[in-house]
Amino acid sequence: MSITLKDIAMKAGVSQMTVSRILNGKARGQVSPEVAARVQAIAGELKYRSNRIDRKLDSFLAGDASAAELPRITVLTPYPDFLERGGGAAGRLNAILPSVFQTAAEAGGMVEILPVTRENDPNRIEWPWLNRFGAGSRILALSPWFLVPLAELSRRGARIALIQGEEFWRNMTLRYAAEWAILTYRNRQGYEMLAEELLREGYSRIAVTVYDEYRNEPDYPSLTGVSNVLAGHGISYLHPVVQKEKAYDVAAFARAYRENPFDALTFIAPKGIEWNYRKTLQENLSLPDSVKIVFGNDNQDARRFSPPLPNMSYPLPEMAAQAVKLLLSDDFTPGERLFSGIFNDPVSPERRKKT
């Protein structure tokens, strides 16, 4: 029995029209990333095939010698309910899935989503789940978290496409560049761009929001990006505002300002904080209005404040589309491809002078 849009809609708790728009890549801005990711995940679990793929499958079953086996892209996730988390790595994966599904469908392929552990531990892979992969398998992963299973899958002959940030783990993954397609978004370069922009606007005491769990990693993007630029301008000031990733302390910003005042802040927005959007972010953080805040990533919170706050964005959907095309290509070409960030300042220069 074939899976229909109605089947997916019932399981996802949305309308058939919503499912159709999501699977055809036409729902951007109309549904939340969480809903889109849930629908895509269910479609993958149910092995849904679009009409175009169904026609290709029908041709194959009818004995058409020109019809090859349907190519499959396997997208790895750390654990079963990962996509429901939102924010962070889950948010990035949710952001690329529409592009993955659409690009694969346009090429006559299909997509499945596979969790590789039960407990979010890269050293406790559920290897029986991966035993069916070998030469000809096509694997897409977001982040070097998957380094252990990716190395094993590569040893078995699978094609690998890895999307990652420009950070410490890149030093390890580049060892596989001769075999894998590695697509790197330059988030450290993004923080350098933010710091240069803040310096141009006259800010020099730039504080940096960092997660305590990662701040001691070499090449931590926000710290190294901002410190590289400040040092290049002969400025020794560097002030990390330390946060726990899963226990964000909003009051810590006011304390950090009292202890070591800053005039600008690169900000990481956590998941689950209830902001008061009738106030500025500075008021939410108990900081003076004179402190300039810029987001280190493209986050919905940056757009909800009035005025909207500057942020960096990275072309993740385009990177995902290129990764899928590489995996499905007759001529798979490994190596690293670098993608620069884009500085977005929604406030015009004239208005900026008044704020």
Descriptive overview:
The structure is a single chain. The chain is an alpha/beta fold and 355 residues long. Helix content is 39%, strand content 17%. It has 15 helices and twelve strands. It has helices spanning 5-12, 16-23, 33-45, 51-61, 88-106, 127-130, 147-155, 170-173, 187-200, 221-232, 251-259, 281-284, 300-304, 316-328, 349-354; strands at 72-77, 110-115, 138-142, 159-165, 181-185, 206-211, 239-243, 264-267, 292-295, 311-313, 335-339, 342-344. A six-stranded parallel β-sheet has the order 2-1-3-4-5-11, with helices on both faces. Strands 7-6-8-9 form a four-stranded parallel β-sheet, sandwiched between helices. Strand 1 (72-77), helix 5 and strand 2 form a beta-alpha-beta unit. It is globular and about 60 Å long.
